[in-house]
Design goal:
Pfam family, one: RTE1
Helix content: 40-55%
Protein name: Protein REVERSION-TO-ETHYLENE SENSITIVITY1
Number of strands: 6
Number of helices: 8
GO cellular component, one term: endoplasmic reticulum
Shape: globular
Number of domains: 1
InterPro entries: TMEM222/RTE1
GO biological process, one term: regulation of ethylene-activated signaling pathway
Strand content: 5-15%
Strand order of the largest sheet: 4-3-2-1-5-6
Structural class: alpha+beta
């Protein structure tokens, strides 16, 4: 091989390497994460859920959610100006759903942001890694006031997913985050099922025994109003629910 050919090959290799590193959607450099370990409360890259006292007794589809960093520590919007780290509020995690980092968008910079939703993704805020997105959302919600009806833990998780553009979407909100964990989430163990469902069953039985059918009608109206509020707040009144 001639000496002049060596620099040429090196330049071509460098260009190929640069193109590969800057191309959108390449996730070959993602380092492996540990398995889910409920005993150590480690849920890497997971959305997690646990029932809320009293509220989940009346509406079992409502609970407290958080999201796990790559090391498994869980972050959750637990109160006004406060995002808890590795100290999940309202008890042990009952359900979880591990997300695929390969479905996220990690542009190194705006100049190499070439995904189909690059403009909308940039409006939500971008990140170069999973933990970077969670860190940015954490800083954002440390200046937010907690409110069950307008700015809650689901809002925080939705904000994280929008920064990640998870599954190619920057339109995550409290409704589809709740649906995602409720429909696709896995129970940690049998005890978590009992802990989550037994209070609701007990309330229903007591209500029917004491009030009969009017109690069921009242519960149906309560659920309709609650779900209707979030549907209207998310899809009809812009900015009502963060």
């Amino acid at each position: 091989m001639s000496p002049k050919a060596v620099p040429s090959m090196e330049v071509e290799a460098a260009v190929d390497s640069e193109d590969a590193s800057s191309s959108q959607g390449t996730h070959g450099d993602l380092w492996p994460i540990d398995d889910v370990d409920p005993k150590r409360a480690r849920f890497p890259c997971c959305i997690v859920w646990t029932p809320l006292p009293v509220v989940s007794w009346l509406a079992p589809y409502i609970g407290h959610v958080g999201i796990g960093r790559e090391d498994g520590a869980v972050l959750d919007f637990a109160g006004s100006n406060f995002v808890s780290v590795d100290n999940f509020a309202y008890g042990a995690i009952a359900r979880y759903l591990q997300l695929d980092r390969k479905k996220c968008c990690f542009p190194p910079n705006l100049g190499t942001h070439t995904c189909e939703i690059s403009y909308r993704h940039a409006e939500c805020g971008t990140a170069i890694s999973w933990d970077d997105a969670l860190r940015s959302s954490m800083q954002h919600f440390q200046h937010k006031y907690y409110n069950l009806f307008t700015c809650n833990c689901h809002s925080f998780v939705a904000n994280c997913l929008n920064r990640l553009a998870y599954d190619g979407s920057p339109r995550w909100n409290v409704i589809n985050v709740a649906a995602l964990i409720l429909w696709r989430g896995r129970w940690v163990n049998r005890m978590s099922v009992i802990r989550s469902c037994l209070p609701f069953v007990a309330v229903m039985c007591c209500g029917i025994w004491m009030a009969g059918w009017p109690f069921l009608i009242g519960m149906a109206v309560f659920s309709s109003l609650l779900i209707g509020w979030f549907l209207v707040g998310v899809y009809c009144v812009r900015g009502l629910i963060c």
